[in-house]
Structure formats: C-alpha cells, structure tokens
Design goal:
Helix content: 25-40%
Low-confidence stretches: 286-292
Distance between the termini: 45 Å
Strand content: 15-25%
Mean pLDDT: 88
Structural class: alpha/beta
Number of helices: 19
Number of strands: 19
Strand order of the largest sheet: 6-7-8-3-9-10
C-alpha cells in the first residue's frame, strides 16, 4: 500500500541548508501497524508529514519516492494531494488544542473532510459525524457535537481528532504522538481505540511516538530513527528484546521505571515554604456567551497541603482533575478563588507544559531570559546578559543559544530554556506543570536529572505536576493525588505507591502498571 524509498528532506530557510531526513525507507501493507520511534528532532514527524503531503514546497527540498497504492505523491500536484488528504490518508496531530479550530464547533470540524470529499446534505453530514463520534467512544455525542474544543477535556479533544481523521474511512492513518500529553488511563483508552479501529476497519496505522512502551503495546513492527536516519528496524518484540544498535539500547534504557534515580535534599528539619488552606478555584465565564447568572463550577475544591523548603512534591491525577488550575491558583493567576495561600518565599515561578507555546516566537532566547530582569528594573544590560548566560549554563546550554529563536531549538532545548527562565529571579519555589510530558525518553531523563541537580545545589522546592506515575516515583518524595478537583490522598512516596488507601489511587497505579 505504501512504499517510501530513499526519501531525503532538506530545509533551505537558513544560511546553510540542513538535511533533516536521510535515506528514509518504509513499506506498509493494508491493515498493518508500524511504529516510528526516536528522540525529538530525529526526523519522525518530518517523514510522516512528507508522506501526508503536508510539507512546505517553498523552503524545503525533497527527493526520493513516495508511492501510495502505486501513485507517486512526492511530485503530485497540490490539487491531487488535496483529493487524497483526509480521504485516503488521515492524520492525527500531537496537540489537538492547537490543531482544532477554536471558533468552530467540534461537530463541524469532524464533518469537514466529508464536505470536501463527499456530496452530502447537512442532515447527512451531521448524522455521519455523530455516528463517528459514537464509534470513537465520545459520550453523549448529540450534545457534544455542539461544543467548542476548549469545552472538552484533553482526552475528548483527542477523540475528536481521531473522529475527524477517520470520517472518510481512510486506508492509512498517520498518528503523530497522539497519546503524548494524556494521562495513563486516557492513554490506555486511546490505544485500545486505535487497536479496535485497525481490527474492524483494516486501517493501516503509522504510529509516531517517543513513548516506547506505547509502541510496544500497539505495533507489530518498529523503525528507530536518529538524526534523520533509520538506524534499526524489525518486529517490535525483536527490536525491544534484542536491540542491535547502541542508540536503541539507550532509548530502551531511558524508559521511565518505578525506581529512584536520585533523592532530593534532606528536608527533615526544614521550614514550610508554602501552605495551601481550603483553596477552591473556578474560571470566570463571559456573561452572555455562557448561561448568565449560572453559578460557576469549582475546578479545585477545598484543597489543603503544605510544602517544606527544598522538598519535591508530586501532584498527580487524570486530565481535567484540577492539577494545573491548583498550580495557577497558588501563583495568583486566577481571581475567582476561596481559601488561603501562604507563601514563605518571594517570586515563585512556573514551568509550563508546552515550552514552545510559552516562549515568544519572535524574540531571541537572550531577550526572553532577560525580560523578568527588565521588568524588575534593577539590572544593567550587562548584568542581565551575564545572568542569562549563567542560567543557560546551569541548564546545560552554552552562550550561543542566546542569539537563537525558539523555533531553532529542539523540544528538550526549549524546555531547558523554560527552566532557565524560571530561575532568572532566583526563586525558592518552582511549580513545574507537566514539564517532561511532551519530551522523548532520553531528554525526559535529562530534564528530571536537571531538576534534581537544581534542587540539590540551589535548594529549590518543586511542586511537580504530572500524570506519569513512573516519573513522579523517580523524582518525588511526597505525593498528592487529585480527582475531580479534590485531593483524595496524600503521603510519602512509599505510602502512596505501596499502601494506597483511596480506590482512585489504586486505579491510577494499576493503569500505570505498578506492582508492589
């Protein structure tokens, strides 16, 4: 069905052209599930986007062969590609919130490919969309058809993306990191959904991921990419059990496991750095757009906990449970709140989940890092520059990065810049909101080690928000578990993992594959 041979992709929008994909080959048969794994910047997504015909024709040079059912796609006209895209080849992107149109209802967006490729009435379009929503297990499809993307949880938005990709019953589905930012229970549901779609529709799936455990549970064959090249390929069990390349061995070794990689500083006799007392929080809604006068639902409900100096505390729970909202509330980013928050430090900072979305794309890294000091107004330009250089050095990046813009950095490098930015004002408390969820396993391991290093050397306390219980186990000494806006359980890592009391905590650990 798909035969890609000697694919080369060269980016020409810089002074020195850069080849990002070398000699890429893949053959796929109908109904087959093939995985592509590798670190950020290894060429996984670029290769898939070339197959889907979604790469720019202006600043990219492509050569080789991409045959889909015998037809050459690499040199096909734009109009012919439009006939194939969404009809014969569907694609699920990594981040549904940025891939879905925020001003269109989800039902309209699911229908879009049908409007382009089929001649159907409005009623037929709606019926097909609702049927597809039900097929991908979106609950209450008739009601959610009229929702906007921001009104849905991350897991439901991903299901909307899958429904939109499948609406024309494509022969090939390209899934680009579709489970990366999802919690363990939703991730398992999406994987089961893709397996069912593959079995029932015989849809071939090209599954791109840096999560090797997910690839192993879904795919029959895997390709390992490094620096734009395929370095190893074969049946998934064979590659995982007997990797031939050192790079593959390192990838497998870096998969998070339920083990401690290091310990935080000893904070046995330390003082409190944060007290959260009966805090509730809700988001204000625009009168007129939402139902006026309706009492807003609490996203965080009567949360209470204390953090000590130098402590690393994990805050875990499923998507939509209120973890991020609680983090924002602690930093005073929400107005509509109740309860009491007491800080025993100045200038607490936040590391956001999406490094690319939280960095100004039009500014250099140096300008971005210096911004908090400019606002503070107490530093000369030379002092600002020297501090930015020092903070980059702390996170493992050299001075040359100061002149680059975010788009010129890999995902891991951007996350390091975000950590450096959080350090610019010398905080004693950092709230890290899913800082490694979108990173590949090797970079994830580097960032975790970096956070432990900063904790030990600078004594920074970290509230680590995550849905990955393996990462939390590696990093945190105490765990807080949230569900539906409430803290249902909190205790030491040993208490939570080995003697959980709440049924929800037990369910989370079971979904993550934890066994005593």
């Amino acid at each position: 069905m798909l035969d890609v041979n000697d694919l080369h992709i060269e980016i020409e929008d810089s002074i020195i052209p850069e080849t990002v994909v070398h000699d890429f080959d893949i053959i796929m048969h109908p109904g087959e599930i093939v995985g592509i794994v590798g670190e950020s910047g290894s060429g996984k997504s670029m290769s898939a986007l070339a197959i889907a015909g979604l790469l720019s024709r202006k600043d990219m040079k492509k050569k080789g062969r991409i045959l889909f059912e015998g037809e050459e796609l690499l040199t096909a006209s734009r109009s012919r590609l439009r006939e194939i895209q969404g009809d014969d080849i569907g694609i699920i992107f990594q981040e549904p919130m940025t891939s879905l149109n925020p001003v269109k209802k989800v039902g309209w967006q699911i229908e879009e490919a049908l409007r382009i490729h089929r001649n159907l009435s409005d009623d037929e379009l709606k019926s097909a969309a609702i049927a597809m929503m039900k097929d991908v297990e979106i609950p209450d499809a008739e009601r959610l058809y009229n929702y906007y993307p921001h009104e849905l949880s991350g897991g439901l938005r991903q299901r909307v993306m899958i429904a939109a990709a499948l609406i024309c019953d494509p022969k090939l589905l390209i899934a680009d990191e579709p489970t990366t930012a999802l919690d363990v229970t939703i991730q398992a549901q999406i994987i089961e959904l893709l397996k069912r779609i593959n079995h029932e529709r015989n849809t071939a799936i090209l599954f791109i991921s840096h999560d090797l455990s997910v690839v192993r549970s879904l795919c029959s064959r895997v390709l390992v990419m490094n620096k734009g090249r395929i370095v190893e390929s074969g049946p998934v069990d064979e590659v995982f059990e007997h990797p031939g390349e050192e790079y593959t061995k390192n990838l497998i070794h870096a998969i998070p496991k339920f083990q401690k990689i290091a310990t935080a500083i000893d904070n046995h006799d330390s003082k409190p750095i944060l007290e959260v007392k009966n805090v509730s929080a809700r988001y204000k809604k625009i009168t007129g757009y939402f139902q006026p006068g309706k009492k807003q639902r609490d996203v965080v409900k009567s949360a209470s906990f204390t953090m000590n100096e130098g402590e690393i505390v994990g805050l875990v729970g499923e998507s939509g449970c209120g973890k991020t909202t609680l983090g924002k509330t602690i930093l005073g980013m929400l107005d509509d709140t109740d309860g009491e928050i007491v800080h025993y430090s100045n200038m607490p900072q936040m590391i956001f989940q999406d490094p690319y979305g939280s960095l100004n794309p039009s500014k250099t890294i140096g300008w971005i890092l210096e911004e908090p000091l400019r606002i503070n107004g107490k530093y000369t330009p030379n002092e600002r520059y020297e501090r930015a250089k020092k903070m980059l050095g702390l996170v493992g990046l050299d001075e040359s990065y100061l002149s680059r813009k975010p788009k010129a950095l890999s995902g891991g490098q951007r996350q390091r810049v975000c950590i450096a930015l959080a350090l610019m004002l010398e905080p004693r408390l950092i709230i890290a909101d899913e800082p490694v969820s979108a990173l590949d396993v090797t970079v994830q391991e580097q960032v975790i080690n970096l956070l432990i290093k900063l904790n030990r050397e600078l004594g920074i306390a970290i509230l680590f928000i995550s849905h990955d219980l393996k990462v939390v186990y590696e990093l945190c000494s105490r765990i807080i578990v949230m569900k539906d806006g409430r803290i249902v359980e909190q205790g030491t890592d040993d208490e939570i993992y080995n003697d959980p009391k709440d049924p929800y905590t037990k369910q989370l650990l079971s979904s993550a594959g934890y066994a005593k």
